[in-house]
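Late entry, evening session. Most of the bench is empty. Finally got around to the prediction I had been postponing all week. Sequence below, unchanged from the version circulated by S.P.
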Amino acid sequence: MTRLIILGSASAVSNAEHDNTHFLLQGDRGSMVLVDCGSNPLPKLRRYGIHHEQIQAMILTHFHPDHVSGVPIMLMQLWVMGRQNPLHVYGLHHCLQRVETLMRDGFQWHTWPNFFPVILHTLPEQPDTPLLDDDDFAIRSWPTRHFIPTIGLRIEVKTTGTVVGYSCDTEPISHIVELARDADLLLHEAAGEGFGHSSAAQAGWVATQAGARRLALIHYNVRQKDPEPLVNEARTTFAGPVERAEDFQEFTL
């Protein structure tokens, strides 16, 4: 069963029920792809019986703490647990260069004995960029409009033909409509209208423009207001099914 597991659903400030936004793609043919790492996902993956060696790839959408701060502790724990398999990491130059500098100069990962290979794959900041193509998934990236260089994703499941769009952090722009075109599921941020972000109503507008079949709101504010009304807000601009993604929710793809 191919599935998308929500490991965190909150925007920049998390709470006890909502971790910072990140998720796992698990394919029928063995693919395991993490999208972002705002906190350490390893303890959460154990509840699904996923061994640390099974994680093959990680996509980092941008270099903001709520999306990358878990990278050092995850890499350290993988090393301590004896991982040997390479880990492939994908992202824009702006992000990967800073991650590499943090690990090299801050944590001196070159001094960790028998450290497993971490292979960095730098993506161009261009629409419809091929990112990853394996037995389970074909993933492409689009630039978003955020405070720093950021990518959203279009994920195609090879075994079922299901398409998932992920907006990541962004204002509602044409690139997000493109990546979500005719998607079976659109995961769209709803942190609130303003520079670099979108409201739930704007997420609904994108879903409508793209012809998406289902909308799930993610990366929403859990600190300053109750997120419960977000679903009804999105329904003012999108007539299809709407829900609010929750931590540990599973979407069958």
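Two things to note before I forget:
The CA atoms of residues 22 and 85 lie 22 Å apart.
The mean pLDDT is 97.
Will write this up properly tomorrow.
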